[in-house]
Amino acid sequence: MNKEVLKKIKLIVTIVLILVFVWFLIISPMITFHSNEKSLEDAAKRYFELNSNELPTGENVKTVTLKTLYHKAFIKNDLYIPYTSKTCSIENSWVKVKRVNGEYKYYTYLECGVLSSTVDHKGPVITLNGDENISIGIGDNYKEAGVKSVVDNTDGKLNVKDVAIKGEVDTSKVGTYEITYTALDSLNNKTVVTREVKVVQKLNSTIKKILKETKNFAGNPENNYIRLSNMLFRIYGIDNNDNVIIVSDEDIANVNYTKIDKWLDYYYKNLNDFTKKIIVKSKYCNMNITDTTLDTTKCSGYTKERYVFIPSIIEVNKAASGNENFMRPNTMSWVANSKDKKTAYLTRSFFFGNESNKTYLSYSVDDNYGVRPMMTIKGDTLIVSGDGTKENPYIFGDTKKAKGGTLLNERFTGEYISIDDYVYRIIKTNNDGTIKVISDFTVNDTEETAFEINGKITYDPTKKSSIGYYINNRISEYINTKYFVKHEIEVPIYKNKIIYGQEIQTKKYNVVLSAPNMYEMFGAQPQSVASRSYWMINTSQKDHVGAGMLSMGVPINGQIEDETRLGVRVVGFLKKGTTISNGDGTKEKPYIIK
Asked: Which domain holds residue 129?
């Protein structure tokens, strides 16, 4: 057999194979599909012959679906997608009938996998005026923007007035509302478009309505509380960029004035990611002040842009209204102004004795006093709930409360827990899964917490003469330590004065309970335990120098006298398997541990 003959045979075989493929892949499926299409249309005609009362009048269109024809037994055999065991779509397949020139005309649409009828089955395209997703402030007016155009692939441009618009927006309530726009073409093919309208409560808009013509709160307002990073703040006011300035509602720690910047870096790292994202880097007032200019309300010097700082005398003065001023705490807290290289100013709600009529006093920059972080957050941050009161502060959804059965080590810094009605606060979760907490209470002063000092004040849990021993071995008589686990602590030791970041050495011990560190998160006296004193873990090599908190919320910044008696506030580590029973994690409704 010569080569020419072989070529002809190969060509014939190729053509045959192509024809076979065309038959099986195109022609045969289309024959089957069109047969099914005719079966659908014939069934629909029989349906309307027996149900003539359903035939349309005027320009109306009537539709019967494949699903209805199955259920009414007008089609007894399933219609299948060619070469498969899958049936054609019973929801999307239909026959429509319309009166045209006095006669009924049938339009059949069958959908079988990739095969479908060529009849017009798509609804018109609706184009809205404005965006499909919009946000408006609570209390604002919602004005319906309407429809810009309606165009159908068969009927062309349709009248926008024929679009049905449904839905309402309640601008008095925060929420998401839907407005639907429905259009039909001449075959009643329907298109529905939805506009989502979010009624939101922006922080700056809310505060502006409260402040009206002023820029900051003054006196002792009851509606300027917010919660961020599980910490309570007060809103100071609005800046020139419509962002919101906030300040901590209480001292977070007691720190030397010279080390505030370094400590604020540590504080910033403990904020959650949401809070860090909404903080606006800002310049803060930081000018020097003299005793003769303590009443000024004008700032002449600013920091570089930064995330967190502390209030200045300017903010405190502007917040005064008569004898009330929410920027003056019960404790003694630093303001951002120094007097000279050796002294800086602090404020509190009242002073004693000869200083009783003063707003500020100056102390050594090496002394430890309260730090209340101040920051500026984005004004367009959305309020999720709350009314700004202390009991119901504004919240932003930065954390969600835990469900019952949740592991405590999955929770966050600043949240509160309760064990046997004693409240603690989470400092952090450790790499081993244990949870470091600090009590939000103090054990009342007792004779047993007075110690013979006679020189150096050491924090040593191995010595009976040390407060460290008493806390680790005796406090379990007052509180339940069932959920606590033994852990290693480091006792910071200083050369002379106790100064943040200037420890000359640390000593390690294994304990169940210990005293707070002066500089750790929430080491300052909490609002809920006013008039309670407690010892600190920080110690010095110098005689009679140690760390403790007096009952009026002021740390000891000098020598501690013999026979000094302070109460006990504890720090401990909860077991990694500790679970939450219920609660919200707030001070008012702490998580319950059972």
From this structure: 125-200
Strand partners, 135: 198
Do 96 and 129 fall within a single domain?
Answer: no
The stretches in the chain having pLDDT less than 70 are: 1-2, 5, 9, 13, 22, 444-455, 528-531
Half-sphere exposure of 204 (CA within 13 A, CB side): 16
pTM over 0.85: no
Considering the domain boundaries, does residue 382 fall inside one?
A: no
Q: Tell me the residue length of the chain.
A: 594
- The answer for residues whose C-beta is within 8 angstroms of residue 370's C-beta and 6 or more apart is 251, 253, 254, 329, 331, 332, 333, 334, 346, 524, 553
Phi and psi at residue 589, to the nearest 5° = -135, 75
Convert the pLDDT of each residue in 18-65 to its tens digit: 777 767 777 888 999 999 999 999 999 999 999 999 999 888 999 999
User: Is 52 inside any structural domain?
Assistant: yes
Angle, CA of 315, 316 and 317, to the nearest 5° = 95
Whether residue 255 sits in one domain with residue 186: no
The amino acid at 324? E
pLDDT (0 to 100) of residue 305? 96
d(Cα 237, Cα 216) in Å, to the nearest integer?
A: 4
Residue 329: how many other CB atoms lie within 10 Å: 22
Write down which residue in 116, 151, 167 finishes a domain.
116
Q: Is residue 235 within 8 Å of residue 246, measured between CB atoms?
A: yes
- Residue 283 is predicted with a pLDDT of 96
SS3 of 55, please?
A: coil
Q: Are residues 110 and 138 in the same domain?
A: no
Please indicate, yes or no, whether residues 422 and 494 belong to a single structural domain of this protein: yes
Tell which residue, 77, 160, 89, 81, has the closest CA to residue 121.
89
R_g over Cα of the chain? 38
Among residues 230, 240, 239, the alpha carbon closest in space to that of 274 is found at 230
What CATH number is attached to the domain comprising 183?
2.60.40.10
Q: In terms of domains, do 82 and 99 share one?
A: yes
pLDDT of 514: 95
Distance CA 462, CA 475 (A): 15
For the chain, the straight-line distance linking the first and the last C-alpha, in angstroms and rounded, comes to 94
Tokens of 28: 């045969």
Tokens of 62: 């009537």
Domain count, the chain: 4
pLDDT of residue 275: 96
Q: Residue 590 half-sphere exposure, CB side, CA atoms within 13 Å?
A: 20
